[in-house]
What does this fold into?
Amino acid sequence: MPKNAEPPDGGRQSLKAVISTFQLWAIAVGMVISGIYFGWNYGWAVAGTLGFLVATLIVTVLYITFIFSYTELTAAIPKAGGPFSYAYRAFGANMGFVAGFGTLVDFVLAPPAIAFALGSYSHFLNPNIPVLLVSVGAYVIFIAVNVLGIKESANFSLVITVLSVAELLVFMGVIVPYFKVENFVAHSIPVTASGVFEALPYAIWFYIAIEGVAMVAEEVKNPQRTIPRGYILSILTLVVLAIGTMVLSGGAGDWRLLSNIDHPLPETLSLTLGRDSAWSKIFASLGLFGLIASFHCNTIGYSRQIFALAREGFLPSFLANLHPRFQTPHYALLSGGVVGLGALLAASTDKLIILSVLGAMVMYITSMLSLFELRRKEPHLYRPFKTPFYPWFPLIALCLSVVCLLAIMYYNRGLSLLFFSALSLALLVFWRVKEPLVETELQKGK
It folds into this structure.
């Protein structure tokens, strides 16, 4: 097998190109927006408001530099494999496998955390509604929606994401009059390096999964123009929403009451407006939009990654089969759903967040290394979008990703051991069993 061969696509299953710029923005924001509704507030528990603010600013710099760098790869190599395709082309099959594994963990384990939050929001609205019933129901419904077709899924994403963004803007508008700097800094844990580092994964949860747009790159119309526009608009949208929501929530009341729950935003309204306030119930009802948007869009993401890995022989080939009528990767959707449901039943939300972030950091590191290697190895590759301030932006993104990975490993040794043990075992299986399958798939693609 040629070490640096590009995964071939010709003559095999391919996806329909139907997604516009606005739909791509909706998918990108939709993949991430649930992280603004829940999960990040666990960072307050370990670092306080000020320490978590520092962690959030560091992570915001990471994501801005990463997205402007990653967009170059996505526009130049618009493949459903995303990071797997870039690492494969730059370094060969082994690095491609590592990138694909990290991406799979990121996108397969984020949906169960979101599904649990969906159940928690529903239970907040009506205590008679079981959390797990809603969580499992979300998988059934949105796998079915995604089987129907990417155009239908993209249109749904557009509507639900616009509603989610509008709701967050209304939320910020409602609590602005109650914001006090004294509340934000009250009871704050002293800002220390250890606290900031421990809070990093929860700050990453604000933005994690925006890179998932790469997984629908094959389905984008005019990807060389559409992808850069969609990415840049989405990261700007998310920075404003994330920092605005976090700062205003922390200054609206006693933030300690919000630091260990799965529905911090409706609880913020309860603290400021009163527990019987109609706003609290209305927001919790509408808050389901943001969680639904992310669950739906992450379902798109994991299914495309499984599809791409299977198409190139890194996973069983039947997972790359498309539905005969809808031309969607139905087996990939179902298999990721089964794994996600298992994770939902086996792990808590904060642990799922840590594992998902570990996968993301591995993927970010391999992606930035791939960018540098492809600049060296293929200087004449057509790049419709070039990283601004090269090499500084990708270098900053790479260094911050390494720092975040090391910090997460240090403060979450057990989960890190689980993650890297699974990666090592998967690599061992790949080296001993899958290599001949990749050879076969490469021969088919010739």
